[in-house]
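Why show two proteins at once? Because comparison is the fastest way to build intuition. When a single record is shown, students tend to memorize it. When two are placed side by side, the eye starts asking what differs. So, the first record is below.
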Amino acid sequence: MPRAASICLVRGCAQRTARSGRCVEHAPPERPWARKSARNLHRDRGWDRHVRPRALVRDGFACVRCGAREYLEVDHILPIAKGGSWELENAQTLCQPCHQDKTTRDRRQA
């Protein structure tokens, strides 16, 4: 059995819904922030699913600089903005403080 048509959630509007429970007139605008930035246009989704976990395992779930085992992040050794790649060879495990220090140094060198 088909669903009954819904009406717009906006008070006083009796038009049928189009998206997000609202009619065409009251539907929220497209989210421009949902698009990828120019820097990440060519980013491979494999980073989060393949490279990041492998880097963590390879580095023994510890920061490669100080050996910390908490607040770990996987960092690009050579930043993408400076020609680095999304490959495992360009990944390293760092704790948040070490990652912040490295990022600061990378930005100073630019």
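Second record. Ask yourself what differs from the first in the token line.
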Amino acid sequence: MNRKLVILLSLIYVLFMAALAVYYFTHNVSFKGTVAIGGIICGAVPLLLALFTKLQFNLPIVISYLVFLVGSQYFGSILGWYGLGWWDTFMHFVSGAILAFSGIALYERLIHRNAGDEISPWFVFLFTLSFAALGGVLWEVYEFSSDQFFNMTLQGGGNKDTMTDLIADTIGGLVIAAVAGIRTRAKLKKKT
């Protein structure tokens, strides 16, 4: 059931962005059309993974990812909400939280089931926070590279924009990492 829902939701987003791409390119609005093409690619990621891999998806993470794409690509770039000033920072906070949840899901899949009884809450905290912060750093590398190689203006605010984005990503990750560490500590205390 989760797999079918992931396919359906991803397909809806991809088709929505494809319709926007056609509309904007036929109306000579190339920036919004390019954002919509990016939306097709980003929205296709969970769709392709669901169709061509045996990975089991954490449905709340996939839904959060798609909601984030709507907020970032559609509301932020296409409708111009990034011009509000605070929207970009809010989206980075949300992406930090989503990355932290993804880090937790990855962590839970990678550890041996019995190892969870002996894992330090500090390790869970640091792994989750590091995963979220790394995701933020990689995004800023993408923005910087796009600006340098393709004459884009993704880092319109320069160093201040980059640092604000990284701080927001880190705070979003920090909130979820703290909860994950506390939850792990509570589980360990419960077992002793």
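One difference worth noting in the second protein: Helices lie at 2-26, 30-52, 59-78, 86-110, 121-150, 158-191.
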